[in-house]
Write a structure and sequence with these properties.
Blueprint: E1 2-3, E2 15-21, E3 50-60, E4 74-81, E5 87-94, E6 106-113, H1 118-124
């Protein structure tokens, strides 16, 4: 995850741009066949392995853990690919809904894996 701002004003209305990077083991785009480069899962990479509707962002103090129970704050998303062909999901979070408070010095992104079919689960093991 890459957030494009060094500091966030928790009282600022607006969006916080960020990017979630796919890897050969975490496919964010369309289903891919195994090729060892873009997809390293024998049997192929299932499509959109992260449930983007579950992605949340919240501020935390250094050394603390995410508290959870944050409202959905991702308002926009788009897709692109990096140089090695892996998907990148560009996300924009509503700052006022992201539960970022004064004194927070880190941010935590949480989300859930999509439910995979039996073929995909066997291939990932």
């Amino acid at each position: 995850m890459d957030v494009s701002e060094q500091a966030v004003n928790p009282d600022k209305a607006g969006v916080l741009p960020s990017r979630l990077f796919g890897t050969p083991l975490l496919n964010l785009g369309a289903a891919l066949p195994y090729d060892g480069v873009r997809c390293a899962i024998p049997g192929g990479c299932p499509a959109r392995m992260i449930d983007l509707g579950s992605v949340r962002l919240e501020g935390v103090r250094r050394g603390a853990s995410a508290r959870g129970a944050v409202r959905r704050c991702c308002v926009r998303r788009s897709w692109t690919r990096n140089g090695d062909g892996c998907s990148i999901c560009k996300l924009k979070f509503e700052v006022l809904q992201a539960r970022i408070e004064r004194g927070d010095d880190e941010a935590c992104t949480t989300g859930a894996f999509r439910t995979l079919d039996a073929t995909s689960r066997r291939a990932i093991r």
